[in-house]
Amino acid sequence: MFLSNIFTDSAMQEKYIDILVSSFLPLVKGAFYYTIPLTLISFAIGLVLAIITAMMRISGIKLFQGIARVYVSIIRGTPLLVQLYIIFYGLPSVGVTINPLISAIIGFSLNMGAYNSEIIRAAILSIPKGQWEASQSIGMTYLQSLRRVVFPQATRVSIPPLSNSFIGLIKDTSLASTITYGELFRQAQEIASQNYEFLLVYTEAAAIYWIICVGLSFVQDRVETRLERYVST
C-alpha cells in the first residue's frame, strides 16, 4: 500500500524527491567531512597498535605476550558499542571527559588494533622459517630480518584482510552517532527527526555507505590484482 501510494500520488513523489535532494548534500558532507576522516585516522592508529601487539604476541617475552593477549581478549570479547559508551559516557564519572571525536578515535583505534593484530600476526607466522634462517645466515639481525625479509612478504599476505577490515570500519563508524559525533548516520538521524521520513532518509544514507564501500572494494580488487602479478613474477 505504501509503495503503491508513492507511485500513484504525484504530490507524494515530489515530496520524496525534494527530501532526497535536500538531504543528499548534508549526508555527503557528513561522509567526507566526518566519516572518512574518522575512518582514516582510526585505521592508521589502529594499524600501529596492531603491529606492536602482533610483535608482542610473537615475541619470546611472556610479559609482553600476556599483555597483548589480555588486550586482544578484552577488545574482541566486548561489543564495540559498549566500548564507545565506556569511553564517552563512562569516563566522565571518574573525572575524565573526552569530546566525541577523540572518543570515537580512541574506541575505533583500540578495536582495529586488536582485530588487525591477529591478521598481522598470522601473516608474519605464514612466512616460512627458512626465510628467517636464510636472512640470519647472511648476518642480519632479528630486526633486520623483520624489516627487509619478513615484513615485505607479510604485507602482501595481510593486505586483502586488512582491506576488508578498513571497509568494515567505514560501516562501523555509524556507531559514533550514538556518542553525538556528526558523521554520516548522525546527519541522517538529524534530518529524519525534522521531516519524520525515517525510512527514506535512512535508505539514502545506506545507499551512500554502499557506494563508498563498492568504490573501496573496486580499489581493493585492483591492488590485489597488482600484488598477484608481482608475486607471480
UniProtKB/TrEMBL annotation:
<dbReference type="InterPro" id="IPR010065">
    <property type="entry name" value="AA_ABC_transptr_permease_3TM"/>
</dbReference>
<feature type="transmembrane region" description="Helical">
    <location>
        <begin position="199"/>
        <end position="219"/>
    </location>
</feature>
<protein>
    <submittedName>
        <fullName>Cysteine ABC transporter permease</fullName>
    </submittedName>
</protein>
<dbReference type="Pfam" id="PF00528">
    <property type="entry name" value="BPD_transp_1"/>
</dbReference>
<dbReference type="GO" id="GO:0043190">
    <property type="term" value="C:ATP-binding cassette (ABC) transporter complex"/>
</dbReference>
<feature type="transmembrane region" description="Helical">
    <location>
        <begin position="97"/>
        <end position="115"/>
    </location>
</feature>
<keyword id="KW-0472">Membrane</keyword>
<feature type="domain" description="ABC transmembrane type-1">
    <location>
        <begin position="32"/>
        <end position="220"/>
    </location>
</feature>
<dbReference type="InterPro" id="IPR043429">
    <property type="entry name" value="ArtM/GltK/GlnP/TcyL/YhdX-like"/>
</dbReference>
<dbReference type="GO" id="GO:0015184">
    <property type="term" value="F:L-cystine transmembrane transporter activity"/>
</dbReference>
<keyword id="KW-1003">Cell membrane</keyword>
<keyword id="KW-0812">Transmembrane</keyword>
<keyword id="KW-1133">Transmembrane helix</keyword>
<keyword id="KW-0813">Transport</keyword>
<feature type="transmembrane region" description="Helical">
    <location>
        <begin position="70"/>
        <end position="91"/>
    </location>
</feature>
<feature type="transmembrane region" description="Helical">
    <location>
        <begin position="31"/>
        <end position="58"/>
    </location>
</feature>
<dbReference type="InterPro" id="IPR000515">
    <property type="entry name" value="MetI-like"/>
</dbReference>
<dbReference type="InterPro" id="IPR035906">
    <property type="entry name" value="MetI-like_sf"/>
</dbReference>
<comment type="similarity">
    <text>Belongs to the binding-protein-dependent transport system permease family.</text>
</comment>
<keyword id="KW-0029">Amino-acid transport</keyword>
